[in-house]
Design goal:
- The complex is a heterodimer of chains A (315) and B (325).
- With 315 residues, chain A is mainly alpha-helical.
- Helices cover 74% and strands 1% of the residues of chain A.
- Chain A has one domain: ABC transporter involved in vitamin B12 uptake, BtuC (Orthogonal Bundle).
- Chain A has 14 helices and 2 strands; from the N terminus they run H-H-H-H-H-H-H-E-E-H-H-H-H-H-H-H.
- In chain A, strands 1-2 form a two-stranded antiparallel ribbon.
- With 325 residues, chain B is mostly helical.
- Chain B has one domain.
- Chain B has 15 helices and no strands.
- In chain B, helix 1 runs parallel beside helix 14, helix 4 packs across helix 13 and helix 6 packs antiparallel against helix 12.
- The two termini of chain B are 13 Å apart.
- The chains are: A mainly alpha (315), B mainly alpha (325).
- At the A-B interface, helix 5, helix 6, helix 12 and helix 14 of A face helix 7, helix 13 and helix 15 of B.
Chain lengths: 315, 325
């Protein structure tokens, strides 16, 4: 009994329950048709949300006001950089991925530089940065070779027994992220800063360095995400990251991470990522129009946040 | 007396220096606008004319109104990431129902202000992060806009077109409108007693609550005002562009936040300035397109110009603030 209650109190549980409910509703609607395919598709799409969601989670955990609004622009630019470096040749895949990672990490580092040098709230810093990145992307991406090399496109779409390989790798990555968060000095420092930045500083945490690392990490994850997206959708474009602003913040909050900072939850990011993707699948299956789909997505997100309620912040 | 740290002892009279820095700081928005204007005048002197201003500041009125809307939300220590799609939604309503069935249009627009007020109540009562709630709402407004106007089109009501085509003598209409908006909001928020309460809800909520003011009410009023100015912004936008598109306002979310911050507003503490916000909006409107065009910079860099201005002004503010101390 006690253990059951402990499980029920886990904040990440509800995101998985939500995902399951949505899946069951859709399967009931189709009469069992495509139940497995839906899981496969949900897993392969959720991967992209989970990767940036984990980055955003670390940033949000730093405490009130910390959020990275430059992720969409970052993803767009990194996808173009990756495709440009790969140049359609399989031998350059790894170099292209590294280039995307470096591009994203550089953006993250610049974000923190702005926060630190101008002493402005991260929202404004990442916002100004995203304005500039967006323009760089538009001007850089024009007339670019945007097709991924065939090997990379196949890799990002590769499935074994109906499970996308990318999803398996992302599960490994999230396990690593969970360990880093709970068991490593870096993760504990992030949590400490989120709980009380002054106390953390007095306790000897190098606040500046940890915040710098976190923004750089988040940027780097955005960069990798951009490259993978371009591979999966077989092409890069400026708008490829647009939906990941809301998605990255939503999965963090729905997944049970505290928006007030200092309390993070990695499994919840997966549950919430699957929930959002399955929700879209469900609405598509029901055959609603684009307008209705947007309205319902928005209302459900507001509804979930309201139900979860909670401590203030992020702003 | 003990607050003065060694090493920062000012050379001349300390109080005068700080006051000068503070004044410089409050003049910063106006200075940046003047700088952009001078650059335009230098690059193309003919632009500085009645006709030129009408053309260059064409879209400044809706941007200024959206910025004021955002300013009310920021005054209460919140952030509205849905104002852009809301302006687009209002635009679609204006170009369809407000023309064809004015009564329905008016009811819908008033209802949408009511939704904003409810959001304020919800955010306060459930203690929700406004950034997430408004991000969710941005999808709702966008979806509604697409439902109302699936394809770009519609037409602005004639009376609205007539208002925005108004050509006053000597002073270009956008400038007159900006002055009017700034003066009206400045009076309401900075000079009335309830305006002080509204700003206080962002400055020190606990103190206001202990003094017996309802924080729920201040939040509702701030969000309702944001909704009202969002509606005005959407209507003004359609009055200028004459037809609507579901995505027409999308860029306004980020522009409005940038405008408030450029105008000297701060993110926390209820420190905002209506006059500054309008000036910030004008600066962004001028710098983004006319200045770049005159400098022969391709439109790709329009958004970057906004970001760069924001960073430059914030950097200038940091330098001035250092002297203030």
């Amino acid at each position: 009994m006690a253990s059951l209650r402990m499980v029920l109190e886990k904040p990440w549980l509800w995101s998985f329950v939500g995902a399951l409910v949505v899946w069951v509703a859709t399967v009931a609607f189709t009469g069992g048709y495509g139940a497995g395919g839906m899981v496969t598709a949900a897993l392969s799409l959720a991967v992209f949300t989970v990767i940036v969601g984990v980055g955003q989670m670390f940033v949000i955990t730093l405490g009130p006001g910390n959020v990275d609004l430059s992720l969409p622009a970052n993803i767009g630019l990194a996808s173009a950089v990756a495709m440009k470096v790969m140049g359609g040749s399989d031998s350059m895949i790894l170099v292209g991925l590294l280039a995307a990672l470096a591009c994203g990490a550089a953006i993250g580092a610049i974000n923190y530089l702005l926060i630190w040098a101008l002493r402005i709230p991260p929202i404004i810093a990442t916002l100004s940065a995203s304005f500039i990145i967006q323009s760089v992307d538009i001007s850089y991406g024009r007339g670019l070779q945007i097709k991924p090399p065939p090997g990379f496109a196949d890799f990002t779409n590769w499935q074994v027994l109906g499970i996308p390989v990318l999803a398996m790798l992302t599960v490994l990555f999230t396990i690593g992220a969970a360990l880093a968060l709970q068991r490593m000095i870096y993760g504990r420092s992030v949590l400490a800063i989120g709980q009380n930045i002054r106390a953390a500083w007095l306790a000897g945490v190098d606040v500046g360095r940890i915040r710098f690392l976190t923004y750089t990490l988040c940027g780097g994850l955005g960069g990798i995400d951009g490259a993978l997206l371009a591979g999966y959708f077989r092409g890069a474009n400026v708008d490829i990251g647009n939906e990941y602003l809301l998605a990255s913040i939503a999965v963090v909050v729905i997944g049970g991470t505290s928006v007030a900072g200092g309390k993070a939850n990695v499994p919840g990011v997966w549950g919430a990522g699957l929930f959002l993707v399955l929700l879209l699948t469900m609405l598509n299956t029901f055959g609603v129009s684009a307008g209705v789909r947007l309205v319902l997505t928005g209302l459900i997100i507001v509804g979930v946040i309201t139900a979860a309620g909670g401590e203030k912040a992020l702003r | 007396m003990t607050a003065i740290a060694p090493g920062t002892v000012p050379k001349s009279s300390p109080r005068g220096n700080a006051a000068r820095a503070r004044m410089l700081r409050s003049l910063l928005p106006a200075l940046s606008l003047a700088l952009v204007l001078m650059a335009i005048a230098w690059l193309n002197p003919r632009a500085i004319s009645y006709f030129g201003f009408n053309l260059m500041l064409n879209l400044a009125i809706p941007i200024a109104l959206a910025t004021i809307a955002q300013m009310f939300v920021i005054a209460g220590n919140e952030l509205d990431l849905s104002i852009g799609t809301f302006v687009g939604f209002v635009g679609c309503v204006t170009a369809t129902w407000l023309r064809d069935a004015p009564l329905v249009g008016i009811v819908v627009l008033l209802g949408s202000i009511g939704v904003y007020a409810l959001l304020g109540a919800l955010i306060h009562l459930r203690n929700l992060p406004s950034i997430v709630v408004t991000l969710g709402m941005s999808f709702v407004w966008q979806g509604l806009a697409i439902l109302i106007l699936p394809k770009p089109g519609g037409k602005a009501p004639d009376w609205l077109l007539a208002i925005l085509a108004f050509k006053p003598p000597y002073v270009p209409f956008p400038i007159l409108a900006a002055l009017l908006i700034a003066a009206a909001v400045h009076f309401g928020l900075m000079r009335t007693s309830y305006g002080v309460i509204l700003r206080g809800s962002g400055g020190n909520a606990a103190a206001l609550r202990r003094a017996g003011w309802s924080l729920l009410k201040t939040k509702i009023v701030l969000f309702a005002l944001a909704g009202l100015f969002g509606v005005l912004s959407g209507m003004a936008l359609i009055g200028i562009t004459t037809s609507a598109d579901a995505n027409i306002g999308n860029g306004y979310t980020l522009l409005s936040v940038a405008g408030v911050i450029l105008g000297g507003g701060e993110f926390v503490g209820g420190r905002v300035s209506p006059i500054g916000a309008v000036i910030g909006a004008l600066t962004l409107a001028l710098a983004a397109s006319p200045l770049l065009t005159f400098m022969h910079i391709p439109p790709d860099w329009q958004v970057a110009a906004n970001g760069a201005i924001l960073i430059i002004v914030l950097a200038a503010r940091v330098i001035i603030s250092r002297r203030e101390r």
